[in-house]
Amino acid sequence: MKAVVLTGPGPVENLQVREVPDPAVPPGWVRIRVEAFGLNRSELHTRLGLADGVTFPRVPGIEASGVVDDPNGTDLAERQQVVTMMGGMGRTFDGGYAQYTVVPREQVIPFRSALPWATIGAVPETLQTAYGSLTVGLDLRPGQTLLIRGGTSSVGLAAAALARDLGAMVLATTRRPERLDAMGADHPLIDDGDVAGQVRKLFPDGVDAALELVGTPTLPDTLRATRVHGTVCFTGMLSNEWLVRDFYPIGYLPRGVRLSAYGGESDDLPAEVLQRYLDRIAAGEVSLGPVHRYAIDDIRQAHTDLEQGTKVGKLVGLPWVAR
Question: pTM for this structure?
Answer without folding.
Answer: 0.93
